[in-house]
Known about the structure:
Layout: H1 2-14, H2 18-40, H3 43-65, E1 72-75, E2 78-81, E3 84-86, H4 88-98, H5 100-135, H6 141-153, H7 155-179
Amino acid sequence: MCFKFLKRELRSLLGLSTLVIIGLRPFFDCHIKLTRIFSTLDSNKYIAMKKIFILLFALVPLLSFGQAEDEMRLIGNQIFSGKSPISVGIAKNLSMAKSPEAYLHFKKASQIRGWNVVWWIAGGYEVIAGGVSLGQGSPIAFLDVALGGVLIGITPSRENKRKFYVMQGVNTYNKSLKID
């Protein structure tokens, strides 16, 4: 009876076809079965179960809402949030809303790392290509090797600058947590 009424109402309101209505039947049957199960329970058990469900659904958001934000720590080259290690990109995303200044530090550190990878690859290619050219007797191949050496040689100082920006980002993020 209930299913026929719902089927007629859904078809008239939404213009659903019979196949869609038939596809919804297991959900209506499940609801009817659950209603029968709860109606056979003793009213005290039903009320107790209902209170437990309400309590659980009320406590879960409260427990997760009240958690304090974790400070970031820099140990060696690794950033930790709580007990788990995170990358500079994740630290950048975490700090985006909380501390825009820390976000800028992490963003700059990410950019430096990206360019360092480019310089490492280009420098390595130049050294290898220059070495092959030297082996073939090219008179200016030493310029390729020298250029590759310079490109690879500038990255350690840039990595130190990157570490500085990461440290500044961690310190700024932690200060913003203490202020709030």
